[in-house]
Input
Amino acid sequence: MSEVQFHTEMETLLQTAEPETRSVWLMHEAGERLGLSHDEVHELVAPERVTVFRVSCKILGKVVNFWGCLSLHNSARGPFKGGIRLAPDVTIWETTELSRLMTLKCAACDIEFGGGKTGIRVDMPAMYKLFDRTPRDLDFEKIITIDAVEYYSKIFRDVFSSHLYIPAPDMGTGPDEMAFIYNETQDPASVTGKGDGVQGWLPGRKESTGIGCSYVAMRTLDEMVGIAPDGATIAIQGFGNVGRPLAKDLAEHGVKVVGITDLWGGVHNPEGLDIDALLQHFEDNATVANFGGGRPLNNEELFGLDVDCLIPAAAGDVICEDVAKTIKAKCVVEAANMPTTIDGMKTLWERGIIVAPDILANAGGVIASMLEYSSSLSAIKPERHEVYKILKKKIGENFDLSRDRAAEEDIGFVEAAIEIAMERVYSVMKGRRMM
Ligand code: NAD
Output
């Protein structure tokens, strides 16, 4: 037989068995502590429906096919809710894991949504080659992402219009892409994370994840580490939709943000970075690299900085066991989804470093989405400060419950939040005879 292997895009998406994932591991551990049976945990872990699809787009006169996956994980507590991720390395299992995380996040913050997620394989470097362009051309990238989402929204229009699944932005998408879902459905409640002025938009939605994370970071420092946020030092990985408002809000509260990195470089200033100047630099250069207000910094150095708090706000799985051993911060606040691996988490636990869980730390976005969804047909919008107040209240109440439970049961903050989320989903699934 020929040595040559032919793999379709679908085969690379469809792996045979789910790799060991953090949420499954945490849920099985929590299930044991909660006295749930193996089958019951399985029902909580398994997605309700997973669809693999191809989006055929006509972009700048060429037909381009993107493959993707929609995971509708759990609808016990409300409509499937979760963002659209465009990335070159999307897999079914990653999308499934992220949709499961949405179920847990919405339950951990006690909001009436279930969990879903879309992943579409968009390989931007390959697009530059295909269209014979030179990176980075932000206008060109926008054409690609908007076209991918526009064609995707035609496939799933009925799913959005019926509010079965309500998408939002995730990595690689933002308000511009969400506008094209609205264009397709003409229904302001069919999508959240819409840009300013698009019917049903919400003031403060864009900044809400960063604002919620800043709130969690300051409370973690204050109440769990015993360091006053004013004057405390923080390092952040990522200066995107989450990282920028996060850094700004922290700086406005007197926190010294001393190091920030992104995909192209980073900057360190032990006296605290001038965040307004850095935001202007980002506006002009689309990166924090080469910012004059500090010395260059790479990601490896960032994780080892001697700071009070470390905030991964970029990719997943960045804090593995080896990285966890080098961390000097007293707490890690998970702005990104699952930035700490299972082994990374065990190492941080052994070293006494507190981890504030992603399902609380980055829940500001989905809480604001709930407000956007529920007020989308109203001509009276909540004001920005009201949105922030509600998201802090929701996160705050559940921060208290998780913190107290962690202390009572002598388990981690992450583990306690997972237990609370699982109990809430389990009780509704039982009540609705879904298990
Ligand atoms: P984004 O695409 O706007 O920004 C990502 C940032 O991280 C960029 O600065 C990028 O350069 C940097 N980055 C990416 N990979 C990196 C790497 N390997 N090393 C260093 N820097 C890297 O994304 P975002 O919307 O800010 O999301 C960031 C994280 O937060 C993701 O894990 C996402 O799933 C999670 N999250 C986002 C939201 C939201 O509302 N946007 C809500 C919940 C969770």
